[in-house]
Request: fold
Amino acid sequence: MSKEFMPKIISFLCKWCTYSGADLAGTNRMKYPPSILPLRVMCSSRVNPVFLIKSFLYGADGVLIGGCHPGDCHYQSGNYYTRRRFAILTTIFDSLGLESERLRLSWISAAEGTKFVRVSTEFTEKIKSMGENPAKKKIFL
Amino acid sequence: MDKVLKIDKSAEKGIVELLKYLLLNDRVSGVFTLRKTGNNGSFDYALITEPALLEDSIPLHPFMHVNAGKILSALPSMRKPVAAVIKPCELRSFVELVKRSQGALDDFLLISYTCGGSFPYKTTVKGQMDKLLPEFWEAVKSGLDSDSIRPTCRACEYFVPMNADLTISLVGEKDLDSKCAIFLHSGKSKSMVEGFEAEISKGELKLSRFDSLVKKRKEQKEKDFKEINIQDSGLDGMIDIFGKCIGCHGCSRICPICHCILCDFESCAYDYDTSMIENELLSRGGVRVPTDTILYQIGRLSHMSFSCTGCGLCTEVCPADIPVSTIFRKTGEEVAGLFDYLPGKDVNEEIPVTIFKEDELSELGND
Ligand code: SF4
Ligand code: SF4
Reply:
């Protein structure tokens, strides 16, 4: 019997918004897929692009960054920097022919438990349709 | 309007003459230029304060063993500016470093020239340069590419300096051996040359005269990008290209933009301990050592590609013949393009990762 492929999605979630949103989903007994592996960061801008590159090369099927909506950053402007860095990194991925679709940025506030569930479900489905990250099987990286 | 100095000497003699004048008349504290080191064709950049030492200087020598932008950023501030003769890509690199608080434009009188390109390292190391120089200068005079220059230079459309105080006109100047034309762009340059004996008139370096060479260089660049074809070969392509990498990190050490004293990728944050190796072995059944070759390359791209000036030195130093600069330049152009950024163009334009606009990239993150 072949087991259904359940992706691993490393998720860097901002403490003030998306992580709290995920908490809210939990306290409301909403279900989100087990693919999501949450890591709490103090701000989405704490996420060094190298974290994403490393996650990808080490075989994460998807990488999610969750932060506050633009304008709502707890530290005023962290997420604006995150947005630029994310644009830069996906451009680098595209330029090298790597699958930038495995990287996702999403603004999810502390009140948006439902959105957290939707985004994580959607993203999981998308990654499932893409299949496993080919980097997982490469010895040379 | 700019002014032009016309000296009745060869271009090289003319500029050396001017440098001497600046030094003797205390207009500058020193001169930074390429200078012959020995009799075997070796040379180096030197900071000179003794005018007699300028005899051995070769400011227009078509060779770049290091990026002078990086060296200028390490020089001390002197009482007066230092006159520095550097190539256009070195100047752009210096501007990128200034933006990173690694130097100050005011410390220098920046002299550059319309650049015919540089020779590969190997040519000089093998002592073949003198033989090839006549052909090189003939090509420069007719505004064409010499057969001897580096492939990187043949694909460089930015051979006219940006941000120079003075530009020596070389490309397409038929009378290089007897005449020297130097354009003065800044107020600083105009006051510095005051009293220097030469014909001074109004004049501008017309960019249109370089149109055909720019076009040719751009075409060559697109061809090189296509040949590497990295975007179509994905991860396997990366592994093919960087499989030869020996992890010496020479490419970042020579890079003018990579100015950090301790490179992130050489810090202990990237040390691999036993448990990490064990983990890798458990999940993949094998691990390449040394580790993290591709992480280093993509990581470096994420740190600096938008500022890559395409100087080509990373390719020159790579012992494994990996076309590093073609890859960095290609990706760098795509990244910089996101923000209409041209590295080294405008010192007041901040590097893309230190600023943001509230109303940009609004399609990102909004699902
Ligand atoms: S110079 Fe070449 S071999 Fe050395 S680290 Fe860079 S790509 Fe690898
Ligand atoms: S990445 Fe290579 S080509 Fe670009 S600035 Fe650095 S050394 Fe020069």
Remarks:
- Residues B 245-251, 317-320, 322, 324 surround iron/sulfur cluster (ligand 1) (CB under 6 Å).
